[in-house]
Amino acid sequence: MKTTEYYRPSRSDAASLFELEQLCFPRPWDLAEIQALIQRDPVLYTIAAFVDGCAIGYISATFSEPGTLHVISLCVHPEYRRRGIAGDLLGSALYWGRHMEAERVVLEVREKNVSAGEFYSSLDFSVQRTLPDFYGEGINGVFMEKPLKPLLHTLNTLLYLYNRLKTIPQVGVILGSGLGWATEPFGNGQSIPFSDIPGMSGEAVEGHSHTLRTSADGRIVFVMGRRHHYQGYSGREITLLPAALAALGVGTWVLTSSAGAVDPAYSVGDAMIFTDHINFSGCIPDSSDCFIGNNVYSPSLQRTAEQYMNNCHKGVFACVSGPAYETAAEVELIRESGASAVSMSTAQEALALRSMGCRVLAMALITNAAESGDSVCHDEVLSAQETVRKKQERSIIQLLERLSR
Description:
The chain is an alpha/beta fold. It folds into 2 domains: 5-147, Aminopeptidase, CATH 3.40.630; 154-403, Nucleoside phosphorylase domain (Rossmann fold, 3-Layer(aba) Sandwich). The protein has 12 helices and 16 strands. The strands form 2 sheets. Strands 1-2-3-4-5-7-6 form a 7-stranded mixed β-sheet. The chain has a 5-stranded mixed β-barrel with strand order 12-15-14-13-16, surrounded by 4 helices. A hairpin with a 2-residue loop joins strand 3 and strand 4. Helix 5 (154-164) crosses helix 7 (240-248) and helix 8 (299-308) packs across helix 12. The protein is elongated. It starts with a strand and ends with a helix. The mean pLDDT is 91.
């Protein structure tokens, strides 16, 4: 079966969405209207499902009034219906809306579209009233509504960033311990300490500068540091900053982690591209709308990364809670579970960003190759950065340049 990828479309996808619109609706929007739906705007959300680069479904939502999320269009290609695609699209839109502090979601559907009405009813939407001639003379609509529980604080963070950043970056990069050198080739744009950002005060882990920095051209935003579960942060707090940037419109993400290898074939300085993860930490973004399932990590971005990274592997990542490093028995357990690298982060961010409709690429940069019985400490992880940088610096630069074009 071909892989379905979900992400926020760009202008180059407008023609594909227009073809889908014509196929699904008797009175489709024109190309200019479709192009308006996919512009990057903090109060407009559009996400689409793609197979081999062709759109097979999309949803658009905006705010008709404060606190009210309005789904203005949702469609799925007839050949791909009843596969959960509409539910995934709607779930992403609701997750975004909750981060924007929506208290309810509303939509209109044709009165005679029984299958659509039943779909929304199954998701706890209730009919509020009939809309006479809403879709043209003699074609009535139905107005439906569902209450939402807002996710607080993201909107404050988003509004602060919107006022500080000159443009909405195209690519977001979260840097793991000691990886701040990856920003140097991209010049100096904006530099904002976490302590200045609403909701982001707190102690920094060694090796993290706790700074938000943009490239000179504004196309890339670097999150230089992250929160960890072992510091006492919840999944919601861990993902606050990347979620705010995603809600703002940053749609492609590269997550890096300084990680230990449990696969004996890996060496210090190697890179492992995540194909999937095992979340041993017990910590996830605390939202019932959060995406849980297959394809958290974008297959197309994985293929792109393989073209650039040196000493590159693909494998399953294990996220643990920390802060203690793994015992020999734990290394064996992680290896037997099918994972090849382990660290104390990344899974929560990946889940939240995927739920926001982002394309996510995650890479473990190997700082220690832990065999059973070996010991490791944070200082060793940081000291291995020279080797990591020597092997991967040029690769990471080329990859980020490619993704930000």
